[in-house]
Amino acid sequence: MAHQHNHTHSHAGNNIRIAFLLNLGFTLFEAIGGLYVNSVAILSDALHDLGDSFSLGISWYLQKNPVSSPMRGSLMDTGGIRCSARSSTAWC
């Protein structure tokens, strides 16, 4: 007698959270190091990493709170702002 046991596990939200926290931690470490050695190049890379952390944070938030409006992508609904912010990191 065959028994099927189908269920899926989605680890995407956890992966985005881990990527966000690691990137943010590296950003802070790099910014402190850049200030310590007085390097504009390292500080500019830390600023770039901060932008990456911001994008990952928005993606993590939107994955936990998806836009469910029938007018997806429209600025007329409340999710439009979230969708517009997310367009810089992914699709709506």
Question: Could you tell me the mean pLDDT?
Answer: 79
Q: What is the rounded distance between the termini?
A: 44 Å
What share of the residues does DSSP label as strand, in percent? under 5%
Q: How many whole angstroms does the radius of gyration measure? A: 19 Å
Task: Give unreliable regions as ranges.
Answer: none
Order of helices and strands: HHH
Share of helical residues: 55-70%
Structural class: mainly alpha
Count of individual domains = 1
The largest sheet is:
none
Total strands: the figure is: 0
* Count of alpha and pi helical runs: 3
How would you sum up the global shape?
A: elongated
Descriptive account of the structure:
The protein contains 3 helices and no strands. The longest helix has 26 residues, at 12-37. It is mostly helical and 92 residues long. It has one domain (14-86). The model has no long low-confidence stretch (mean pLDDT 79).
Which helices and strands appear, and what pairs or packs with what?
Layout: H1 12-37, H2 40-64, H3 79-86
Helix pairs in contact: 1-2
Give me some keywords for this one.
92 residues; 3 helices; mainly alpha; 0% strand
